[in-house]
Specification:
Strand 12 and strand 13 form a beta hairpin. The two termini are about 15 Å apart. Strands 1-3-2-6-8-7-12-13-11-9-10 form an eleven-stranded mixed beta sheet, sandwiched between helices. The protein has about 450 residues and is an alpha/beta fold. Helices cover about 35% and strands about 15% of the residues. The protein is built from 15 helices and 13 strands.
């Protein structure tokens, strides 16, 4: 049975299609594993299970025709800021515990259309880490603390931590997260899995509790990049056209060295080892500098109230305004204010919610300028490897992805983040680079 939890989504889909594996069998296996390793003092990745999952799986097994969906029968977990009809959408906050989704978010509807089975919702950092400035990754008032499957003393990473840890622990065939600034790609590097943040606007943002709609994107979290492309394609309105790896001799990789001095020597040596073998196979490597920008904070601060209240206006939540939510936190400090509410309060007091703030308008202008500049500067490269902290790819809406790189000496996985001017060229390059990565072992639960 354990081999099920290491199989790729592509292999699982093939086994279901060939009737070597039942949908109910696979669904029960995941639910039993979640019950054993996630509950109580476990990893705490799952916020809510779909009570109809077994019945839905059994019905799928009985279908004689129409089993050709690309993800037919694959159980997936969805981050708890994304609407799934009949399940709660809380963004990890007790302030939204009454918010039961009326409809699937379009990306979830597309997953269903392609045969996926929603197993449940995953815990996350509260309001996608836009609550209190000292809040640990993976903590929420609703879900508590998500734990790293490899080492429970280490961070589970990013606001999509429940999805990433669940994937690494073998609780689902694929998971879905959201990313404003590293909530997928930064998160998966801590968990030995793969994540994709598509180019901004490539996926619908409707039915998702936002931070800032001009920065946010949903995306897949999976075992490997091929699985991520499968899920991404099934999240889209129109299927992704096939992407092939680029040959190494035609791969030109930029390496962004900005803030490289803030990265450990051990991680830099891992990058150097990878680049060395790539160069041996005639990959061209060029260093570039693309900086971090504080302007992203102004966009988040100003868009948050506007975009959150737009979402809530179509919801079943009792609290429909940021003012009501902040009031709930401050009236229930012991339950809601363990790590404060600095970001929530800052968005309420420091932004008009009408998108006419001077700092916001200046940030938009700077983003437009930088987007033109950065895209022009990396147009000649297939992909860019981030070696030091920068948010430039998120600020200007470029696609990014994270691959596992190797296992560290302490038994935890390490990863890398790539971004690019063109999504298809980035994916093509990453499919090639992935072949040079060292194997990752599953955590010992």
């Amino acid at each position: 049975m354990n081999e099920l939890f290491t199989m790729t989504a592509m292999d699982l889909a093939r086994a279901i299609r060939d009737k070597r594996l039942g949908v109910e069998e696979l669904t029960r296996a995941y639910m039993e594993r979640i019950d054993k390793f996630d509950r109580g003092e476990g990893l705490n990745t799952v916020a809510e299970l779909n009570s109809n999952a077994i019945a839905q799986a059994r019905k799928m097994d009985s279908i004689k025709t129409g089993r050709n969906g690309a993800m037919f029968g694959l159980p997936v977990l969805i981050k708890d800021n994304i609407d799934v009809s009949g399940l709660h959408t809380t963004a990890g906050s007790l302030a939204l515990m009454d918010n039961i989704a009326k409809n699937d978010a379009p990306i979830v509807a597309n997953l269903h259309r392609n045969g996926a089975l929603v197993l449940g919702k995953t815990n996350m950092t509260e309001f996608a880490n836009y609550t209190g400035s000292n809040m640990p990754a993976g903590y929420s008032s609703h879900g508590g603390q998500v734990k790293n499957a490899y080492d429970r003393t280490k961070s589970p990473g990013g606001s999509s931590s429940g999805s990433a840890v669940a994937m690494s622990a073998g609780f689902c065939s694929a998971a879905v997260g959201t990313d404003t600034s590293f909530s997928i790609v930064g998160c998966v590097t801590e968990n030995g899995v793969t994540g994709l943040k598509p180019a901004h606007g490539a996926l619908s943002s409707r039915g998702i509790i936002p931070i800032a709609k001009t920065l946010d994107s949903a995306g897949p979290i999976t075992h490997n990049l091929t699985d991520a492309l499968l899920v991404y394609s099934c999240m889209k309105d129109d299927a992704l056209q096939p992407v092939e790896p680029v040959s190494p001799e035609n791969l030109h990789l930029a390496v962004n060295i900005f803030n490289r001095d803030q990265v450990s020597k051990a991680q830099l040596s891992r990058y150097e080892a990878l680049l060395s073998v790539l160069k041996c196979d005639h990959v061209q490597v060029t260093e570039v500098i693309q900086a971090y920008t504080e302007k992203q904070c102004d966009i988040m601060r100003c868009e948050f109230q506007h975009d959150l209240e737009e979402y809530l206006s179509h919801s079943k939540a009792q609290r429909r305004t940021l003012e009501e939510i902040v009031g709930y936190y401050e009236k229930n400090p012991e339950q809601m204010m363990k790590y404060g509410n600095a970001y929530l309060r800052g968005a309420l007091d420091g932004a008009p919610g009408k998108l006419d703030d001077i700092a916001y308008i200046e940030a938009l202008s700077e983003r437009k300028r930088l987007r033109t500049q950065i895209i022009e500067s990396i147009r000649g490269y297939n992909a860019c490897l981030m070696t030091g902290p920068t948010n430039i790819m998120h600020f200007i809406g470029l696609p990014s992805l994270a691959l596992w790189l190797c296992m560290a000496d302490d038994g935890t996985p390490r990863g890398m983040i790539l971004y690019g001017a063109d999504e298809r060229r980035l994916i093509s390059a990453a499919l090639t680079i992935e072949q040079y990565c060292m194997p990752i072992t599953m955590p010992k639960l």
